[in-house]
Amino acid sequence: MDARDSMSNPAPILLSRRRLLAAGAVTLAGGTSAAQDAARELGPPRSPYGQRSPHETSARWFAPSPMPGSAASRTPLQDAVGIITPSALHFERHHAGVPALSPSTHELLVHGLVERPLVFTVADLRRMPSVSRIHFIECAGNSSREHEGRPAEDAQRSHGLLSCSEWTGVPLGALLREAGVRREAAWVVAEGADACRLARSLPIDKALDDVIVAYGQNGEALRPEQGYPLRLVVPGWEGNIHIKWLHRLQLSDQPAMSKDEAASYTDFMPDGRAQWFTFAMDVKSVITRPSGGQRLAATGFHEISGLAWSGRGRVTRVEVSADRGSTWQDATLSEPSLPKAFTRFTFPWAWSGRDTWLQSRASDDTGDRQPTREALVAVRGLLAGPDGFNHYNGIKAWRVRPDGTVSHV
Amino acid sequence: MDARDSMSNPAPILLSRRRLLAAGAVTLAGGTSAAQDAARELGPPRSPYGQRSPHETSARWFAPSPMPGSAASRTPLQDAVGIITPSALHFERHHAGVPALSPSTHELLVHGLVERPLVFTVADLRRMPSVSRIHFIECAGNSSREHEGRPAEDAQRSHGLLSCSEWTGVPLGALLREAGVRREAAWVVAEGADACRLARSLPIDKALDDVIVAYGQNGEALRPEQGYPLRLVVPGWEGNIHIKWLHRLQLSDQPAMSKDEAASYTDFMPDGRAQWFTFAMDVKSVITRPSGGQRLAATGFHEISGLAWSGRGRVTRVEVSADRGSTWQDATLSEPSLPKAFTRFTFPWAWSGRDTWLQSRASDDTGDRQPTREALVAVRGLLAGPDGFNHYNGIKAWRVRPDGTVSHV
Predict the structure, then answer these.
(1) B224 and B109: one domain?
(2) In chain A, which end has fewer C-beta atoms inside a 10 angstrom radius, N or C?
(3) Which residues on B lie below 8 Å from A218 (Cβ)?
(4) Same structural domain, B215 and B306
């Protein structure tokens, strides 16, 4: 049966008779090939800050936006390799543009229910205790079209509000301890210096746990779209709360009930009511290769590769199915598998040339497993809020047609 | 005594009386500060492939080179955060320029002592089993001026032939098994498509162990200076053997004795003879902050941060001294500590304002510990080869003067 034998790892891996002959001819010709005689050029001039090859054109995709200053760009996950997203391709969502801030004048104010209200310059923060951790950030609304039953055509458009970087900065807890947290303080209201002064409220327990006031991303300064010179990194929680261009932290005994937590970024339920403060992103995965828009040039071996992540902990297992979900087999997980970070999974697959569905489902160390869309809709319903659905983590399927094209199901 | 109390972690961490008053005034003024009133601009236009802030100017430094096409650029380690080096700032060493190769025509030939000589296109390789791993690459000659007793003025010039990326590609062993390794094969000669066709020989055991034929770096395609579209990644071994622009792998019963393994990249000994094929880079560390060229703006808390690495395994311990090596205390190591990768270490330090030496020494899981320069010179001597010294891993010291300036010792 097609699905079953397609799941076994064949050998030799990808040699077609043609390439074997070609290679044979090559050696008969004396161990060289046309490509071996490539021009011996010295190439372009030196570059103090390097650029990618002009042959590489992978780019973020901006969904059309009716509002000036409001934009969302998606990471080209179909081109991604490994677990690090290049900073140049990290997704962004901004509601009032990308302010051009100067690190020499930008300041972070810590006030409210503290013993000592403080102002930190960026230089102050760089003297303080630092931590670097690899974490994903996912927009709460990522892949909401899957929830609606209108899947997008490729991994970038369906799941691209999602990226993973190494973040460096000061543990928020260390800053708050400097200011002295008063007993009544239950929330930390974080505000950005963007034009809309986007603000969100964090429970004090999370603020004192693993939150980072980040100035570094992937070994250099944050990129402007990521909040330069300072952003909040709130591991595992929805992207909107990772406040960018961070300039104010106010400790309070209650949440601010800001627009982005009282109206937007809430979860509508079937009874018409909305859940507030649903912060954590659930366990989820997506196959990035093969994925929508790609084309398999030939039958035979094709590695299945994808990304899995959980805002609640470590990814412990990813299963892959090539038979419409009848049978599932364990994929190999990249090492190390870090908490609240991408885990790359791979699975050896041989394509027979027949019409095939490829799906992945992830599990995390809390025991959660990625649900089917049907199971999720049964609980969450199909009544979307004004900003659409949030926190969708259903299983994603890609269809490989006999002509090798890959599309959504 | 200065050294001892300077090693204790004080609290509050960095508040000067001035900043505390300023902050107090701020709250009296109603919880805002001048910086809180930053302009509400929508900022620059959208960017499909993002750039860094114009305020960021960190750059690779090219040592003067008398030969056209021969260049070395160094990574600005003094600005580095975390363990990932941005691809744009990854060091490079090339002997015949940076060829502009096309991934659609580039091919990799595997021939010699194999059952089936093969030619792989880049598209072929992307279908094959893949692996992603974070590894450092260090030039064999990195920090050779320390060996000579002529230390450079900053971390970039002294230790900058060193970077760390997440590399993605096909395990070399999988490629060789496709071609079928003959029993007589003892070496793999790897050749690049640069103008000088730089070639190096790897023992077959290493080739079948952890070597990667890489097409990906930090989540996207390799950068041109890093061998686009294909390079060899030989974890833990000297940079020169990580053949860039890789286009040929020839299995042989003996090494090629190429120029870069028979003449260059050898280790001269006091008796005038040179050691051949000294591949692994030994355990080493360097403090990147504070480091040469930087200036401490005030006394009090300054986190000491640096990088440690070993080509033989995992970094298990980094010790820091602030009293000319009389006493050493354990630094905190970043998690996870990966084999043959950067490990970031941090240490809380309070500067009293006195003249101070800062040093670090790393140990790895083979039991090796970074030696003093004196101990290393006692064994290796001071007789350099035509290309200077290789494989220097002595302890590095930075001097903090009373005026806050930091320089080499």
Answers:
(1) yes
(2) N
(3) 82, 84, 86, 218
(4) no
Taking contacts as CB-CB distances below 8 angstroms, the residues of chain A near B218 are: 82, 84, 86, 218
Give yes or no for a contact between B207 and B173, defined as CB atoms under 8 angstroms apart.
Answer: yes
Residue type, A152: A
A314 and A199 within one domain: no
Six-digit token pair at A48?
Answer: 């103090």
**Residues of chain A positioned with their CB less than 8 A from the CB of B227:** none
CA atoms of A141 and A265, how far apart (whole Å): 8
Where is average pLDDT lowest: A161-175, B41-55, B124-138, B153-167? B41-55
Does some domain include residue B242? yes
Find where tokens 């939150």 sit: A211
Residue B18 lies in a domain: no
Are B111 and B253 in the same domain? yes
User: Tens of pLDDT along B234-255?
Assistant: 999 999 999 999 999 999 999 9
pLDDT digits (tens, 9 = 90+) for A226-274: 999 999 999 999 999 999 999 999 999 999 999 999 999 999 889 989 9
A316 and A238 share a domain?
Answer: no
Query: Among B270, B302, B332, which residue terminates a domain?
Result: B270
- CB contact (8 A) between residue A219 and residue B86: yes
Residue B53 confidence (pLDDT) above 90? yes
Q: Which residue of A has its CA nearest to B192?
A: A36
Q: What is the mean pLDDT of residues B122-141?
A: 97
Last residue of a domain, one of B210, B236, B270: B270
Q: Are residues B226 and B362 in the same domain?
A: no
DSSP state, A114? B
pLDDT of residue B31: 43
Q: Print the domain residue range for B212.
A: 72-270
- Closest by CA to A221, choosing from A232, A213, A210, A230, is A230
Overall domain count for chain A: 2
The CATH number assigned to the domain holding B256 equals 3.90.420.10
In a domain, A35, yes or no: no
Q: What is the pTM of this model?
A: 0.94
- Backbone φ and ψ of A145, nearest 5°: -65, -25
A240 and A175 co-located in one domain: yes
% of chain B at pLDDT higher than 70: 91
Residue B271 corresponds to which tokens in the numbers above? 């008796």
Q: What are the structure tokens assigned to A164, written together?
A: 């993973």
Distance (Å) of CA A165 to CA A91, A222, B2: 11, 10, 40
- Under 8 Å CB pairs connecting chains A and B tally to 361
pLDDT at A233: 98
Closest Cα partner for B134 from A315, A166, A50?
A: A166
